[in-house]
Each structure stands twice: as structure tokens, then as C-alpha cells.
Automatic annotation (TrEMBL), chain A:
The EC number(s) this enzyme carries: 1.8.7.1
Record-given protein name: Sulfite reductase [ferredoxin]
Keywords tagged on the record: 4Fe-4S, Heme, Iron, Iron-sulfur, Metal-binding, Oxidoreductase
One Gene Ontology molecular-function label: metal ion binding
Highest taxon listed in the record's lineage: Bacteria
Tagged with keyword Oxidoreductase: yes
Record flagged with keyword Protein transport: no
Annotated Nitrite/sulphite reductase 4Fe-4S domain residues: 119-268, 408-545
Domain annotation Nitrite/Sulfite reductase ferredoxin-like: ranges: 52-111, 340-395
A Pfam family reported for this protein in Swiss-Prot or TrEMBL: NIR_SIR
TrEMBL record, chain B:
Pfam families reported in the protein's UniProt record: DUF2849
Protein name: Sulfite reductase
Region ranges (Disordered): 74-102
Annotated source species: Roseovarius aestuarii
Source domain of life: Bacteria
Length: 555, 102
């Protein structure tokens, strides 16, 4: 794990000192809200529907137990005893007082954390595959790349006033778990003739105008990464539409100019600035890589695991659903679901945070990850420790066996918290999860990702959900539009809109009709929802959604 | 023809806590919509909004919100204002927790 050097520590301390003074000046009346707002946004502080919200960066979703404990302490001391993990691998506190925020930021700095560039028109928190460093299919750990980009982009003088926000994600595996094709820039670590390099994807994004990213460069040598990124962002910084907020993201620039013209411009700037990168970045990169060296995995028998797997059906169900394949023999990746049926997706109480931190420290090489799917990962766990881990998780409401299933829903905060929302998301997620738990159907349904956004900005990634739900305000009433067939992986695809939306009361029955239609349509129990949809298309689902409804009404 | 003016209240977020507040007739800010001043004349509403905006040391983002008059005083006409009045639906936090304990 990367640890701050003197420069990082001094930088964060100085920013915190400045922000403390800014808050004091705002409270004293020396700064107006118009003057203060850009300053607080630079430090991750929003004013939401019912309170302020502090968004804290968790770079590439990586935490150790000290950091997680501090997040829990902050939740208890200055918030309401919980935190909300987001699709950008951040944590949000929903109830801080303005006057407490400087103390919260100082507390974060004690464990090398901050809220810088979690808002505003800057390069945001760089996300990465949450299985980084552990996945069996990984070519290289994406986190050193993400950390290098974090250092390069933090307070980058050219990129503090971009046309709009800018999001970068990195994966080190061909199986994309970081949604890189829905990012402004997606980076995939690839290997060509024994040499590591990067495939650079540009112009993806969700929101009002969803776009799947396009390949800008198929193979970029490692040492060219920062100048190439700098060239790309600078091309957009000049060309990007500052006249219209809705057309300002790079996806629109790429769409309007075409990928070939953008590539030509990027290559031209790249050639120009490449010589100014003298190699210091590569020295730094080598140091960062060393900081992310894999832990020493132990070679031990897995008999305890096998016994528990054989005799405890609850453990078996959890192991089958929540574990992923680790690259080391005898190890597993543990996915802790923050989606207990009926709970708020992505929320963890301070007690739960401490439990997960202690498990990581005791059994998981002191590592934790936050996934963009709003769950927590223990990336390195020896299988012999799984039964005891499961028992502890169960005691604290953290052993729900639903990873990748219909109740493992991504949901943005929606109108329960967010000032931009047009409808609620959380209660819809709660209803769907509760209903399918009652039906005891979710394991039979299998791999099915529902993603819910409470407005067009798509923080809940609804476009790339197998079933996407978008909450809108239609003439003063909450209305939910459905998309089907979206895909967030390396085969990224924007879902197809089914037709007219449904009211808050009708959306759950609508989702049920889609699921029952899938169970009828699938070729066999092994055909996933995504595969069935790819085979049969939208039409049979439309019939199930709209015509059956009419038939019932006519009865 | 100009649209008929509908009843309004001045609402904002408190500067320190960020919670939802409403302007009262005696120029204080209340957490309860039922205690808010209801304005039925456009000019008066505009004036009250200006006065609210002149209190940046107390509130942020003042605006006029539509209300309907009922026996219990003003009621929100839009679900967003209803949520602002009550707090989030997933936890007993915010106004519904705080005001019930008063």
C-alpha cells in the first residue's frame, strides 16, 4: 500500500489549514456563499437536501484497517454512525455540520486520507478493479498506475478548471470489473510480446448522453502513460464545450470531432510534450510499484474450509456466491455484501466498519477494498480462515450471500439525500431486494445486475445494468424508466429503453414481470439474464412488461 | 395572461447544520413548515425572498417553494418539498427524528 511521503503530508495539511480558514471566513460572514461554494466543492463538501455531505476519496478503493477504523470514528464523532460507499469507491457522510468539517478533514489526514478533487471540474478520484493485486486473471496490479495518476492529477495546474469533471478508471485484467468503457478515460493493462503497456479508451460515460468508450491507442508503452494522458486531457481542455454543461464531457467532444481527429490531435501534442517528461515519473512509478508488492502468501492446508463447506449449507451458499478466485493457491477473495435485504445499498454502520477492519487486520493482510458495486472486499484471505470470518460477518449482518444476484443492487442516494435527484432510488432498491428474498428466487435467477439512478446523471450506472432503473419527475410524480440489456464489463453496452415508465407503486411488479419473463424465456438454468437478452432481444420483455399488464387490467 | 400566483413559503438550508428551514412572519427561521409564513401576494413574496437572501450568515440557497393551504397550515405541493420537510425515507434521521423529540 502506498504511504504518503513528506510532500503528500505537507500538501494535505496545507490544504486543510486553508479550508479551515475558509470555513471560518464563511461563518464570520467575510465570504459569501457564492465565494465559498467553489472552495468547499474543491474539498468534497456539498450541500444536499437535508444537510451537508462530505465525500471522502478512497483512492482506487484501497483501505487498510487503520483507515477503516478512522472512517468509523469519524462517522460516530461527527455524523450519525454510518457511512455510504459510492460507485466511485468513495465514502460519503450525509450529516456533517459545516463547522465540524475542518476537524473531520484533519482526522482523515491522520490516516493519509482527504476529500480533495472529489468534486468540481477536475480529474476525480481514480478508480480501479476492486480485485486488484488478487485476481486470478490479472496481468498486472492496476493500483500503482492509479496512484501515479492520482499524484500527477492532484492540483495539476493545467487541469483545475476543466470544461467539466473527468473520470479515469484502470483495470489490470481482461475481464473488466472497473467499467472502464464508461469513463472519460479507461486504461487497460495489456501485454504485447512480453511487454506491459496500456490500451487507452476514451470518451465513455453515462449520464444524459450515454456513450461507450472508443480505443484511442491500442498499445501505449508504460513510460509514455503520463505524457499521453496529459496530451489527451489537454486536447479536450481546449476543444471541450464550455458553452453548454450538457455537452462539456469528453464523450461529446469525441463524438463531435470523431475518434480519428481526436487521436491525431492527441498524438501531435504527445510528440510535443513527451521530451519534457524526463523520467522522474518512471522513477516514482518504480517506487510506487514497490509499495504495492503482494503480501507473502502462506502455504497451508484448507481442511477447515472443506469441512465447513461440506457440512454447513449457509456457509456453502455464502462461499459459492461471495467468493472469487484468487491468484494464489489456497486463497480466496471475499466479497462482503453491503446489500442485506431491505438495507440501504452501500451503507455500513461504524460497528460494521470496525468489524471488517479487524477481520482484515487479523486474516486479510490488513487490506480492504471498496467496490464500485458498493460492497467491501477482503482481497487476500486464506481459505482456512473463511469459516471464522463468515461466522463473524454473520453476527454483524454482513454475511448476505447475494453478490452478483438480483438484490446486489447499485443505487445512488437519490432524492432521499441528493439535491440533484428527481426521484428516490433507495426505497426502490429496498423493495426489490426484500421482495425477491421473500420469493426465495434469487439464487435460481442467478447473475442479474439491477442498477438504479435517481436522476439522469446516472450515478447509479443504470445504463449498464442488466436491468436499469431511472427515476424521473413526471409532472410532479416519481416515475421510473426501465432499460434492459446493459452491460458494465469488457462487453460494455448501453441498455435499451423498454417504453413508458412506471410509478413508484408499479415499478416492483414491473421488475417481477421482467424476471418471470426471463425465467420462462431462458434456454436452461445456466443461461444468464444477459445471455437470454442477447439471444431474444427486447420484444418478449416488452410484451411481458406492457401487454400482460393490459391483459390483467382488462380482466 | 400572467399565471395566477400560488401560495409560497421562503425556504433555505441553515448555514451551519445544512438542514431545511423556513422563514416566519417575525423574521426568524423555523425547522417546521407548519410555522412558516405563507405568502399569497407575489410582490410580498419577492420582498421576503430578498430579505432572506440578505441573511447569508444564517442560511444558504433561499428560494420560494409552492405550498397548499390546509387545516394544518401549509403543505408541500411537490414530493421534493415533502421530503425536505420530513427527511430521508430510509432512516429515522433528520427532521422526522429531531422534530418528534421536541
Amino acid at each position: 500500500m502506498y504511504n504518503y511521503n513528506e510532500f503528500d503530508t505537507a500538501f494535505v495539511a496545507e490544504r486543510n489549514r486553508q479550508f479551515r480558514a475558509q470555513v471560518e471566513r464563511r461563518i464570520s460572514g467575510a465570504l459569501t456563499e457564492d465565494e465559498f461554494k467553489p472552495l468547499r466543492l474543491m474539498n468534497g463538501l456539498y450541500l444536499q437536501l437535508h444537510a451537508y455531505m462530505l465525500r471522502v476519496a478512497i483512492p482506487y478503493g484501497t483501505l487498510d484497517s487503520a483507515k477503516m477504523h478512522k472512517l468509523a470514528d469519524i462517522a460516530d464523532k461527527w455524523d450519525k454512525g454510518y457511512g455510504h460507499f459510492t460507485t466511485r469507491q468513495n465514502i460519503q457522510y450525509n450529516w456533517p455540520k459545516l463547522s465540524d468539517v475542518p476537524d473531520m478533514l484533519d482526522a482523515l489526514a491522520e490516516v493519509e486520507m482527504h476529500a480533495i478533487q472529489t468534486s468540481g471540474n477536475t480529474i476525480r478520484n481514480v478508480t480501479a478493479d476492486h480485485f486488484a493485486g488478487a485476481a486470478a486473471d490479472e496481468i498486472a496490479d492496476p493500483r500503482p498506475v492509479a496512484e501515479l495518476i492520482r499524484q500527477w492529477s492532484t492540483d495539476h495546474p493545467e487541469f483545475q478548471f476543466l470544461p467539466r469533471k473527468f473520470k479515469i478508471a484502470v483495470t489490470g485484467s481482461p475481464n473488466d470489473r472497473a467499467v472502464i468503457k464508461a469513463h472519460d478515460i479507461g486504461i487497460q493493462i495489456v501485454e504485447q510480446d512480453g511487454e506491459i503497456g496500456y490500451r487507452i479508451i476514451v470518451g465513455g460515460g453515462l449520464g444524459r448522453t450515454p456513450m461507450i468508450g472508443k480505443v484511442l491507442r491500442d498499445f501505449l508503452p508504460e513510460e509514455d502513460l503520463l505524457p499521453y494522458l496529459e496530451a489527451t486531457v489537454s486536447v479536450w481542455n481546449l476543444l471541450g464545450r464550455r458553452d453548454n454543461k450538457y455537452k462539456a464531457r469528453i464523450k461529446i467532444t469525441v463524438h463531435e470531432h470523431g475518434i480519428d481527429e481526436i487521436r491525431e490531435r492527441v498524438e501531435r501534442i504527445f510528440k510535443m510534450i513527451r521530451p519534457s517528461f524526463s523520467g522522474i515519473d518512471q522513477q516514482l512509478f518504480a517506487e510506487i510499484k514497490a509499495a504495492f508488492a503482494a503480501p507473502e502468501f502462506r502455504d497451508a492446508p484448507v481442511a477447515e474450509f472443506e469441512t465447513a463447506y461440506k457440512h454447513d449449507p449457509i456457509f456453502r451458499s455464502w462461499a459459492d456466491t461471495n467468493l472469487a478466485e484468487h491468484r494464489a493457491e489456497g486463497y480466496a477473495i471475499v466479497q462482503i455484501s453491503l446489500k442485506a435485504h431491505g438495507a440501504t445499498p452501500g451503507d455500513a454502520s461504524s460497528e460494521q466498519m470496525r468489524v471488517m477492519a479487524d477481520l482484515a487486520q487479523k486474516y486479510g493482510h490488513d487490506q480492504l477494498r471498496i467496490s464500485h458495486e458498493q460492497n467491501v472486499i477482503l482481497p487476500h484471505v486464506h481459505k482456512s480462515d473463511l469459516p471464522v470470518i463468515h461466522a463473524v460477518l454473520k453476527k454483524h449482518g454482513l454475511a448476505t450471500a447475494n453478490i452478483g444476484l438480483i438484490s446486489d443492487i447499485i443505487a445512488c442516494p437519490g432524492m432521499d439525500y441528493c439535491a440533484l435527484a428527481t426521484a428516490r432510488s433507495i426505497p426502490i432498491a429496498q423493495e426489490i431486494a426484500t421482495r425477491f428474498d421473500e420469493l426465495k428466487l434469487e439464487h435460481e435467477i442467478g447473475d442479474l445486475k439491477i442498477k438504479i439512478s435517481g436522476c439522469i446523471n446516472a450515478c447509479g450506472h443504470h445504463h449498464v445494468g442488466h436491468i436499469g432503473i431511472l427515476g424521473l419527475d413526471r409532472a410532479g410524480v416519481e416515475n421510473y424508466q426501465i432499460t434492459l440489456g446493459g452491460d458494465a464489463t469488457e462487453n460494455a453496452r448501453v441498455g435499451d429503453r423498454t417504453g413508458p415508465g412506471f410509478s413508484a407503486d408499479d415499478i416492483l411488479p414491473a421488475i417481477e414481470r421482467i424476471v418471470y419473463a426471463y425465467l420462462d424465456l431462458r434456454a436452461d438454468a445456466d443461461e444468464t439474464f444477459a445471455q437470454t437478452y442477447a439471444r431474444v432481444g427486447l420484444d418478449p420483455f416488452k410484451v411481458a412488461l406492457y401487454e400482460q399488464d393490459k391483459a390483467y387490467a382488462a380482466e | 395572461m400572467p399565471r395566477e400566483f400560488t401560495p409560497k413559503v421562503v425556504t433555505a438550508n441553515a448555514l451551519i447544520e445544512g438542514d431545511v428551514v423556513y422563514l416566519t412572519t417575525d423574521d426568524t427561521w423555523t425547522r417546521r413548515l407548519s410555522e412558516a409564513e405563507v405568502m399569497t401576494e407575489e410582490d410580498h413574496a419577492g420582498l421576503r425572498l430578498l430579505q432572506a437572501e440578505g441573511q447569508p450568515e444564517l442560511v444558504v440557497g433561499a428560494y420560494l417553494a409552492d405550498v397548499a393551504l390546509s387545516e394544518n397550515g401549509p403543505e408541500p405541493t411537490h414530493f421534493r418539498e415533502d421530503f425536505r420537510r420530513t427527511g430521508p425515507s430510509n432512516y429515522n434521521h433528520g427532521k422526522k427524528a429531531e422534530l418528534n423529540n421536541v
